[in-house]
Design a protein that fits this description.
The complex is a heterodimer of chains A (about 425) and B (about 200). Chain A contains 20 helices and no strands. Chain A is mainly alpha-helical. Chain B has about 200 residues and is an all-alpha fold. In chain B, helix 1 runs antiparallel to helix 2, helix 1 runs antiparallel to helix 5 and helix 3 packs antiparallel against helix 5. Classes of the chains: A mainly alpha (about 425), B mainly alpha (about 200). At the A-B interface, helix 1, helix 2, helix 3, helix 4 and helix 12 of A face helix 1, helix 2, helix 3, helix 5 and helix 7 of B.
C-alpha cells in the first residue's frame, strides 16, 4: 500500500496537481486500498481537524500579518539607514549592510520575501548609484533575504518545532548563531568581490551625529526583536502569544510611532496574509492526512530500517539528510517535505545521538539556501521582481553566494555547538 | 451571446465569493489576534487567565485556514510543480489543468461528504473551555472544503464555456499561463507573484 501511495504521489505531482491535494489525495488512495480502508476514511478528516486546530499553528497567520505590517510600514528603510550609516561605507560596505539589514529586519518581520521586497525597494537605487551591477545587487538581495530566514520568528521553525516535537523557543534561540555564520560568510564574499571589481563609494565620511540619529530612530523598531525574542526566550509568553503581540506592536509602530502605513496598504495586507497563510495551512492539513496514512502502513519504521543499512552512523546520516533536502528543495517547496519528513527523520536522528534542535536547524539551513536557489526559490523570484531583472542574468552572480552558503551549511551541520550554544546558554535544552 | 452572459455571471459570482471570503477571513484573523493578545493581557494585567481564549482562537483557525485556502485556490497561489507539463502546447496544458481540476473536485467532494458525516459524530460533544458544541468548530471543515470546491467548479465551468465563447475570465488560468511563460525563460515577475516557491 505504501507503494500505491508513492505512485499516486508521483503521478499527481507530475501532472501539476497543487501539492496540498497531492498529499491529501495520495493519502486517500492509500487508505482506500488498505483492508477495511473505507472504515479508516473518517480518521483522515479527524487528522485534518487536529492539524488545523493546533494552537501553535496560530502563529503562522499572525506572524505573516505582523511581518506585512512592518514591511509595508517603512521599517526596512529605517533599519537600512542605520546599517548604511554605520557599516555601509567603502568598497562592499553597502552590500554588507544589506546582509545585516536583512537579518535584523527578519528578526522583526519573520518573512524572507518581505525582507527582500522591502529592503530591495529601499536600496537598489543606491546600490546602482554606488556602481554595483543590477544582477549582482539582485543576487545579493536574494541571498541576504534567505540568510535572514534562520533569525526568529520564522514560520518554518514553528512548523519544524510542532511536527518534530521540539521546543520552538529552543529552535528560535538556536537559529541566531547559524544565521550569523551565514551572514558573515556572505558579507566576507561581498566585500571580497566588491574590492576586486571596485563596487561601492569610498568617499562617504562617518558622522557620529548622523549615526546616533539613525540609531535613535531605529530604537522602537529594534525593540520589536527584544519584545518578541525576549518574551519567548524569557518564558513571558509562548511563540503563538508572541505573534499576537507582534501584530499589535507592529500596528502601534506603523500607525502611531512612524505613521507610515496608509489605510489602503493596511487593508491590502489582509489579502496577502490570507493568501499566504491559506496555502500553508492547507498543506499542513493535507500533510497530516498523509502522515496518518504513512503511519498505518508503517512507512517510518521501514525507512528507519533502510537508513540503518544505508547510513548507520551520524556523519553519513547527516549527509543523507542534507542531500535529501537539497534535492527536494531543487524541485519543490520545502514546507510539505518538512511536514512529512521531519516526524519520520527526527527519531532516527536522535537515535544516532543528534540533538533534535540541532537537527531542526540544519534542515532549516538547507531550506534557507533553497529560498535563494533557482528554479523554485521564492526569495530569488521576489528579488528579481523588485529589481525588474530576468532570472537568467542573476544566476551567474548568485552562484558564488550559493557556494558560500552551502559551505556554511555544512559547517553548521557538522559543528553542532554553533546551533546549540544559545539554547544551552539559555537553559532551553538539558 | 447567452453563453457569454452565463460565463460572465459565473466570473462575477466567483469574484463575489472571493470578496466575501476575504472579508470573513479578515474578521477571523482579527478575532484570532485579539483573543490570543487578550489572553496575554489578562494573564499579566488582571492575573486571571481564562480557559476560553485559547480554545476560541484554535477553533477560529479551523475556519480561517480552509476559507483562506479557498481564496488561494481562486488566485491559483497554491504550491504546484509544473515541470511535468511545461513542454506541452498551451491548449494541451489547458486540457491537463482542467483534468486536474476535475480530479481535485472529486477529492474535495469526498472530503466534503466525510466532513459533513463527522458533524453527527461530534454532535453531542462540548468543548472544555468555551463550552460550545463541537459541531461549530468541526463545521469549519465542510464549509471550508465546500468553498474550495465551489472555486474549482467555477474554474472548470469557465473553461468549458470558453470552448464556445472563445474567452476565459479565470484569473487563475491567466496566471498559470504567465507562470509557464516565466518558467520557459521569460521575465521573472510572474513567478515571483505565483506562489510557486516557498511561502516564507
Amino acid at each position: 500500500m505504501a507503494i500505491a501511495i508513492g505512485i499516486a504521489w508521483l503521478v499527481f505531482l507530475y501532472i501539476g496537481v497543487p501539492i496540498a491535494f497531492v498529499l491529501g489525495a495520495s493519502a486517500m488512495v492509500g487508505v482506500l486500498l488498505a483492508p477495511d480502508g473505507f472504515d479508516l476514511l473518517p480518521a483522515l478528516v479527524e487528522q485534518m481537524f487536529i492539524a488545523v486546530s493546533s494552537f501553535n499553528f496560530l502563529a503562522i497567520p499572525l506572524f505573516v500579518f505582523a511581518g506585512g505590517v512592518l514591511a509595508e510600514g517603512g521599517i526596512a528603510k529605517i533599519l537600512m539607514d542605520l546599517a548604511s550609516i554605520t557599516i555601509g561605507r567603502g568598497r562592499g560596505g553597502l552590500g554588507a549592510s544589506i546582509v545585516m539589514s536583512a537579518m535584523v529586519f527578519h528578526g522583526i518581520s519573520g518573512s524572507s520575501s518581505a525582507d527582500a521586497a522591502a529592503i530591495g525597494k529601499v536600496t537598489l537605487p543606491t546600490l546602482r548609484a554606488q556602481g554595483y551591477p543590477l544582477p549582482f545587487s539582485v543576487a545579493l538581495l536574494a541571498t541576504a533575504g534567505a540568510t535572514g530566514t534562520l533569525i526568529p520568528p520564522t514560520m518554518d521553525l514553528v512548523i519544524i518545532g510542532i511536527v518534530g516535537n521540539m521546543s520552538i523557543a529552543g529552535l528560535f534561540s538556536a537559529g541566531i548563531l547559524p544565521a550569523c555564520v551565514n551572514g558573515l560568510g556572505l558579507m566576507a564574499l561581498v566585500v571580497f568581490i566588491s574590492r576586486r571589481r571596485g563596487y561601492g563609494n569610498v568617499t562617504i565620511p562617518f558622522v557620529w551625529r548622523e549615526a546616533l540619529r539613525a540609531l535613535l530612530k531605529a530604537v522602537p523598531a529594534l525593540s520589536m526583536i527584544a519584545i518578541i525574542l525576549g518574551g519567548i526566550l524569557g518564558g513571558v509568553f509562548t511563540p503563538t502569544e508572541a505573534s499576537s503581540v507582534a501584530v499589535f506592536y507592529g500596528l502601534f509602530l506603523a500607525f502611531v510611532v512612524y505613521r507610515s502605513l496608509s489605510l489602503r496598504q493596511f487593508l491590502a495586507l489582509f489579502r496577502t496574509t490570507i493568501e499566504i497563510s491559506g496555502m500553508v495551512l492547507l498543506v499542513i492539513a493535507m500533510a497530516a492526512m498523509l502522515g496518518y496514512a504513512l503511519t498505518i502502513f508503517q512507512v517510518p519504521t521501514g525507512l528507519g530500517k533502510l537508513l540503518d543499512t544505508l547510513a548507520p552512523d551520524k556523519v553519513l546520516f547527516l549527509l543523507f539528510v542534507q542531500i535529501c533536502f537539497y534535492l527536494i528543495g531543487m524541485c519543490m517547496d520545502t514546507v510539505p517535505a518538512i511536514l512529512i519528513l521531519i516526524p519520520i527523520l527526527t527519531p532516527l536522528a536522535v537515535a544516532r545521538g543528534i540533538e533534535p534542535i540541532h537537527f531542526g536547524i540544519l534542515v532549516e539551513c538547507n531550506v534557507a539556501l533553497h529560498l535563494a536557489c533557482p528554479p523554485v526559490g521564492n526569495v530569488l523570484f521576489t528579488a528579481c521582481a523588485v529589481g525588474n531583472t530576468p532570472l537568467e542574468l542573476v544566476i551567474k552572480p548568485i552562484l558564488p553566494m550559493i557556494a558560500i552558503l552551502t559551505v556554511t551549511m555544512l559547517i553548521i551541520t557538522y559543528v553542532p555547538d554553533i546551533a546549540m550554544y544559545m539554547p544551552r546558554l539559555l537553559k532551553l535544552v538539558d | 451571446m447567452r453563453l457569454i452572459q452565463a460565463q460572465f455571471f459565473l466570473a462575477e459570482l466567483g469574484r463575489w465569493i472571493e470578496n466575501a471570503l476575504i472579508v470573513i477571513c479578515g474578521l477571523l484573523l482579527c478575532v484570532m489576534a485579539s483573543s490570543v493578545f487578550f489572553e496575554v493581557l489578562i494573564r499579566y494585567v488582571i492575573h486571571a487567565p481564562t480557559a476560553w481564549t485559547e480554545e476560541v482562537a484554535q477553533f477560529v483557525l479551523v475556519w480561517y485556514g480552509l476559507l483562506a485556502a479557498a481564496v488561494g485556490a481562486r488566485k491559483g497561489v497554491h504550491f504546484a510543480i509544473r515541470w511535468g507539463v511545461i513542454r506541452f502546447s498551451p491548449r494541451t496544458r489547458l486540457i491537463i489543468r482542467q483534468g486536474v481540476n476535475i480530479g481535485v473536485i472529486l477529492f474535495l467532494a469526498a472530503l466534503l461528504k466525510m466532513g459533513t458525516d463527522y458533524l453527527d459524530i461530534v454532535a453531542n460533544q462540548t468543548s472544555t473551555g468555551a463550552e460550545i458544541n463541537m459541531r461549530i468548530p468541526w463545521a469549519g471543515i465542510p464549509v471550508g472544503v465546500g468553498s474550495i470546491l465551489a472555486i474549482y467548479v467555477l474554474e472548470v465551468a469557465d473553461a468549458v464555456l470558453s470552448i464556445w465563447t472563445g474567452r476565459q475570465f479565470s484569473a487563475k488560468e491567466a496566471r498559470e499561463e504567465e507562470i509557464h511563460r516565466a518558467l520557459r525563460g521569460e521575465p521573472a515577475e510572474a513567478v515571483a507573484a505565483s506562489g510557486a516557491g516557498h511561502a516564507d
